Automatic annotation (TrEMBL):
UniProt region (Disordered), positions on chain: 1-22, 223-243
Superkingdom, natural source: Bacteria
InterPro entries: PhoX, TAT_signal
Name of the molecule in the record: PhoX family phosphatase
Length: 656
């Protein structure tokens, strides 16, 4: 999510909480990469775009690194690239249709009211599609690629774009002064997620409103806390003396879909929802400081005691988890799986290991924080779905340490091992998981540049880590090689587990691409020389790997000032001579961010989410009454509406 705007409001949770609170002296990724690459690579990275070669750059890695495994049938992207730019609407490559499938406020049930922006209520919103979808997943029904369940996270809300009369919000006091208890109730209902049955009919996708599967999950939905931290005293509140139940999930960013058909939804910037300040000697004070808790971006604590730390000091420990939801059971109580750790989770994409164990890769989206993985203790049983529903409660959580020689180690976060002992404040595994960040600090994990989505390619076993940016990296933290001080554009790291075993504790790694404009020598971007002026991008955020093993990147942070282009979707070559070549496929309207993406199993439909369209960029003002775009409806009186789109090829066939 964004860091390029200057005001404090809902969409700036990354700025208000993403303060780079890691206090350790652990090596940063920049220091490690700088050690790894030699002076010749530095000079090559400094040249203009004509001198940048993905092939040469790929070969410049340490000699002892394992060579990239070639895909059995590398496929290049053959769509006609779109022009980069910024305007009021979306654009997709020629020969493709972009259908708006679901908008904020669309009714999901036969009895749900139609969206009326002037008469919003919490009761109506709880029956309508929520706000700002991030993760999208598609789970087929009866094996069909044209009929299934769409699962969607509703991450956060933009009050100035949602509600009439709120106006420009240029400080937290302005936000809180305008928000009433009724408006907060609408916001709570607009958070969470949705399960929606959809079907493709005559080439067009449509919502099945009378589906037995349709469901809204909100920031008030009852949930169960499971795994090692369940029932721990630090998880108990006045409303829940058991420490095993909690109301709602908040700021759910990316996620994943498991092989047994459940949806993993990840709580990210939960810190912005809590009011109050604990005394310095309070048992949770250091814990909360490490997570950036204490600077609220929402008015919820004004009306609800559970979001006021002075009244419920343990409530914040009950957020920041990965939530598992069964979309096939509308009565399923969502489970917060504490075994996967408590961080600002960007995603939870997994892969079934060769030995049958399920492995989940996790990014903690903050500057100078870490990359994680979870290895389940049990094995996936493809014949017994019910047996898999508890797999994520037992296993080992690891944090990554990247070495300068292109090798790396997964360090286990296990109570009693190494520094994770009572002497350091960890009395149990629950303490390790509640304070995952501090535990990783003590293990000496590598400080990264905002780890966001992480996806494993089942065809090559390579794992791709999206590192969005780190504008707080200083010159004395890096060598001149890579990554860059004031790293505004981010980069992508490619990892290969030892022996193709995702449960192994060793891996090799390399930088796939350094992002930004390669024609500007000072940027040091390393896209292939075949990448056009429209093909490069900055701020990689989410990614997807299609059934052909090809990598697609969505971005967050491109805008008129930062890069001269809107956010969007790019296709990135990862194999062969065209490795590092990027092509522009889709772009969002002004102020928006692209989330998702997610393909149907046959690659014939691609789901995308546009968050916060019309959000004010630097130097602009955008409100409910006067938004900088009224996408996607373009009707007077209708506000801009975050929406989910589906891309299909005209005449049918696979995407690209």
């Amino acid at each position: 999510m964004d860091e390029h705007k200057g005001r404090l409001r809902a969409s700036e949770l990354e700025d208000s909480g993403d303060v780079g609170v890691n206090p350790t002296h652990n090596l940063t990724m920049g220091e490690i990469i700088a050690t790894r690459f030699n002076r010749r690579d530095l000079l090559r990275g400094s040249l203009a775009v004509a001198a940048i070669s993905a092939t040469v750059g790929h070969r410049a890695l340490a000699a002892n690194e394992q060579p990239a495994k070639k895909a059995s049938n590398p496929v290049s992207f053959d769509f006609k690239e779109i022009e980069a730019g910024v305007d009021h609407t979306h654009h997709v490559a020629e020969g493709y249709d972009a259908q708006v499938l679901l908008r904020w406020g669309d009714p999901l049930f036969p009895d749900a009211p139609a969206f009326d922006p002037m008469k919003q209520t919490a009761e109506a919103q709880a029956r309508q599609f929520g706000y700002n979808t991030d993760f999208i997943g598609f789970i087929p029904l009866n094996g069909s690629a044209d009929h299934g369940l769409l699962v969607a996270n509703h991450e956060y809300t933009n009050e100035e774009l949602m509600f009439p009369g709120v106006g420009v919000q240029d400080s937290k006091d302005a936000i809180f002064a305008k928000m009433t208890q009724e408006l907060v109730a609408i916001e709570i209902a607009a958070h969470g997620g949705a399960v929606v049955e959809i079907r493709r009919v005559d080439g067009k996708w449509q919502v099945v409103k009378d589906s037995k599967y349709n469901r809204r999950i909100t920031a008030d939905t009852p949930m169960e806390i499971t795994g090692p931290a369940a029932g721990h005293p630090r998880m108990k509140t006045s409303a829940d003396s058991s420490g095993r139940s909690v109301r709602g999930m908040i700021n759910n960013c990316a996620g994943g879909v498991t092989p047994w058909g459940t949806w993993l939804s990840c709580e990210e910037n939960f810190n912005g929802y809590f009011w109050g300040k604990l005394s310095d000697d309070h048992p949770e004070a250091k814990n909360y400081k490490r997570y950036g808790i204490g600077t609220p971006a929402y008015a919820w604590g004004k009306f609800h005691d559970r979001f006021d730390l002075t009244k419920e000091p343990n409530e914040a420990n009950r957020f920041g988890w990965v939530v598992e939801i069964d979309p096939f059971d509308p009565n399923f109580v969502p489970k917060k799986r504490t075994a996967l750790g408590r961080t600002k989770h960007e995603g939870a994409a997994g892969i079934t290991n060769g030995d049958g164990r399920y492995v989940v890769y996790l990014g903690d989206d903050e500057r100078f924080d870490y990359v994680y993985k979870f290895v389940a203790a049990g094995k996936v049983d493809p014949q017994n779905r019910a047996a898999n529903l508890g797999l994520l409660d037992e296993g080992t959580l690891y944090v990554a340490k990247y070495d300068p020689d292109g090798k790396g180690t997964w360090l286990p976060l296990v109570h009693g091992q190494g520094p994770l002992t009572e002497a350091n404040g960890f009395r149990s595994q629950a303490d390790v998981l509640i304070e995952t960040r501090r535990a990783a600090d003590l293990l000496g994990a590598t400080k990264m540049d905002r780890p966001e989505d992480i996806e494993a390619n089942p065809q090559t076993n390579r794992v791709y880590v999206m590192l969005t940016n780190n504008t707080r990296r200083k010159e004395d933290q890096v060598d001149a090689a890579n990554p860059r001080a004031n790293n505004a554009f981010g980069h992508i790291v490619e990892m290969l587990p030892e022996g193709g075993n995702h449960a192994a504790t060793a891996f090799t790694w390399e930088v796939l691409v350094k992002c930004g404009d390669p024609s500007v020598a000072a940027v040091g971007a390393t896209f292939s020389s075949e990448t056009t002026k429209n093909g490069w991008f900055g701020m990689p955020d989410n990614c997807a790997i299609d059934s052909q093993g090809r990598l697609w990147i969505s971005t967050d942070g491109n805008n008129a000032k930062a890069t001269g282009r809107a956010d969007g979707l790019w296709a990135l070559e990862t194999e062969g001579e065209r490795r590092g070549t990027s092509k522009h496929f889709f772009r969002v309207p002004v102020g928006g961010e692209l989330c998702g993406p997610f393909f149907t199993p046959n690659d014939e439909s691609l789901f995308l989410a546009v968050q916060h369209p019309g959000e004010a960029e630097e130097g602009t003002i955008s409100t409910f009454e006067n938004p900088i775009t009224r996408w996607p409806d373009f009707k007077d009186g209708m506000p801009t509406r975050p929406s989910v789109l589906v891309i299909t090829k005209q005449g049918g066939g696979k995407i690209a």
